[in-house]
Amino acid sequence: MTPHALIFPRTCNTSDRRTIRWFECELIDDTGARRVRSKAFFSVGEAKSWASAQGYPVDETDARNAQ
């Protein structure tokens, strides 16, 4: 399996009715998948850049779906 990353949008509603949105990466390779919850990205581009630097390219169709 070719290592790759998936990007997931996350949202949280605060008690004062604000909505916070960020993105998380899931890194997938031969050993399985692991969601990196310790990293929050405020744009798909930022998440994609970080995943690529880790050696996990992001599929363009997946990145567009996350937006």
Features:
single chain, 67 residues, alpha+beta, three-stranded antiparallel sheet, 2 helices, 3 strands, 25% helix, 46% strand
Strand order of the largest sheet: 1-2-3
**Mean of pLDDT:** 88
The largest β sheet comes out as: 3 strands, antiparallel
Helix content: 25-40%
Unreliable runs: none
Specify the overall morphology.
Answer: elongated
- How far from one another are the termini? 26 Å
Tally of DSSP helical segments = 2
The proportion of residues in beta strands is over 45%
| Helix/strand structural class | alpha+beta
Total beta-strand segments: 3
- Radius of gyration, taken over Cα atoms and rounded to an integer in Å: 13 Å
Strand-and-helix sequence, N→C?
EEEHH
Overall description:
With 67 residues, this protein is of the alpha+beta class. It has two helices and three strands; from the N terminus they run βββαα. A three-stranded antiparallel β-sheet has the order 1-2-3. The N and C termini lie far apart (26 Å). The relative contact order is 0.29.
Question: How are the elements arranged and paired?
Answer:
Blueprint: E1 4-13, E2 19-29, E3 32-41, H1 44-53, H2 60-66
Antiparallel strand pairs: 1-2, 2-3
Short description:
This protein is α+β, with helices and mostly antiparallel strands. Helix content is 25%, strand content 46%.
